[in-house]
Amino acid sequence: MSEVQRRVEAFCDRFGLRIPILEAPMSGACPPELAAAVARAGGMGASGVLLDGPEKIAEWVERFRADHPGALQLNTWIPDPADDVQERIDAASGFLSRYGTPGEQPTPLPDFALQCDAMLAAGPTVVSSIMGLFDADYVRRLHDHDVAWFACATTLDDALAAQEAGADAIVAQGMEAGGHRGSFDPDDAERTVVGLFALLPRFADHLRVPIVAAGGIADGRSVAAALALGASAVQVGTALLRTPEAGIDKSWSSALDGLAPEATVPTRAYSGRLGRAAPTTYVTAWTDPDAPLPAPYPYQRQLVTRWRRGETQGIDKVNNWAGQSAALATEEPAGAIVERMWREARELLA
Ligand SMILES: Cc1cc2nc3c(=O)[nH]c(=O)nc-3n(C[C@H](O)[C@H](O)[C@H](O)COP(=O)(O)O)c2cc1C
Questions:
Q1: Structural domain tally of the chain?
Q2: Could you say which DSSP state residue 106 is in?
Q3: Atom 6 (ligand 1): residue with closest C-alpha?
Q4: Could you tell me the CA-to-CA distances from 238 to 225, 257, 289 in Å, in that order?
Q5: Is residue 94 part of a domain?
C-alpha cells in the first residue's frame, strides 16, 4: 500500500468515511439536502452555522439525519474583537447610499457561546472553526464527547497554534478558495496569500495532525494532487454550489458559469472580512479609487443586509462567493460529483 493510501485510509477509518471528500461548511449555502447527498456518497456533510441560533442548528441536524446519511461537520467563526470603528461604518454607509435607502437594522449575529453549546449537543463527527481558535474549555468538552475539532488555517503559524491548542486536523485553506479567507488576524488576509500547492507540503512537513486540503478542488485531478502533496482528505465548496441540492440563487449560479480563475476577486465588500467572489458590478464598485474601505466585520455585513432590505437597486441579492475553480462547477447532483471526483482521483493515484 502506498503512503498516500495509508494516510487516506487512516483518516477515513477514524472519521467514518468511505471516501476522503468533505463538503466545505458554507454558511448560507449548505442546506441539509446537500450535506446528506455528500454523506450518502461516503463523504462528510457540513453546515456553516454562523447565522444560526441553537434552535435552527438542532432543526438543521434533525433534517440532515432524517435518513441516516453518515458523517457530519458543524462549523462556526471565531468572533473578531470589537474595535472602535464608527468612522469606517459612517464612510461605508455613505457609499452604500448610492444604492438607495436602507431598510431595518438586522438582528445581531447569534450568541457565539450558545452556538458552540448547540453544535456540541447535536453530537456531530466534527466541530470546526475558522478565523481563530476555540478556547481550551470548549476543546476539552468536544473531546470529552468524542467530537473532533478541525481548525481552518491559511499559514503555518496559525496551523501550529491550532495544533498546539488541540485541533485533531487542520484544514489547509489555499488562496484559491471561494468565500472567506480564514486568517486568524483579519488584517493579514491580503498579505498572507498562499496557494494550496505551497501550503500543503509546508503543513505536511511541520504538522503531526492530519491535513484536509481546501481551495480550488473541483475534480479528480485536484483531489489526487492534494493527496499526493500531503493531505489526508479534501474539502470542496464552490464545485458543489451549482448542484440542485445547494439551491443557490439563479443570478449567483450564472455568475459562476464559466467564471475564469483570474476573474474571481478577493473583496471585503460583502462582510468586511476578505473573501473570494465573482466580479459583480457591486463588488467592482468598491474598487473605485474614491470608494471608502468597507467597514470591518461584522459591521459591513450588517450594513449590506440593511441596504438589501431597503428601497435599493444595484446591490447583489446574495453574496456571490466564487473560488478560482468555479468554471469546473457543474449542475450535476452532488453525490454524482463527489463520486466522480474520487473515481478519477483513484485512477490517477493508482
Ligand atoms: C459560499 C461559501 C460560504 C462559505 N462559508 C464558510 C463558513 O461559514 N465557514 C468556513 O469555515 N468556511 C466557509 N467557506 C470556505 C469553505 O469552507 C472552503 O474553505 C472553500 O469553499 C474551499 O474552496 P473552494 O470554494 O474553491 O472549494 C465558504 C465558502 C463558500 C464558497
A1: 1
A2: P
A3: 26
A4: 18, 11, 30
A5: no
Q: Which residue, 199, 239, 242, is CA-closest to 219?
A: 239
- Please give the number of the atom of ligand 1 that sits closest to the Cα of 248: 1
CA distance 309 to 180: 23
Q: Which DSSP letter does residue 269 get?
A: T
Sheet containing 179-180, strands listed edge to edge, beginning at the edge strand earlier in sequence: 179-180, 275-277, 265-267
The three grid cell numbers given for residue 256, joined into one nine-digit string: 459562476
Domain that holds residue 177: 3-82+109-249+328-349
pLDDT > 80? residue 57: yes
Does the model's pTM come out above 0.85? Answer: yes
188 part of a folded domain: yes
Q: What is the CATH number of the domain that holds 163?
A: 3.20.20.70
CA distance linking residue 28 with residue 129, whole number of Å: 16
Beta carbon of 177 within 6 Å of any ligand 1 atom:
yes
180 CA distance to ligand 1 middle (Å): 6
Is 137 domain-assigned? Answer: yes
Beta strands 169-173 and 211-214: pairing type?
parallel
Q: Please, where are the H alpha helices in the chain? A: 3-15, 32-40, 54-65, 86-96, 112-121, 136-144, 156-164, 196-206, 220-228, 250-256, 281-285, 299-308, 334-349
CA of 29 to the centre of ligand 1 (A): 9
Query: Is the beta carbon of 75 within 6 A of some atom in ligand 1?
Result: yes
Residue among 177, 182, 181 nearest 162 (CA) = 182
Alpha carbon of 154 to ligand 1 centroid (Å): 13
Is the CB–ligand 1 distance for residue 214 below 6 Å? Answer: yes
pLDDT in tens, 63-116: 999 978 899 999 999 998 777 789 999 999 999 999 999 999 888 899 999 999
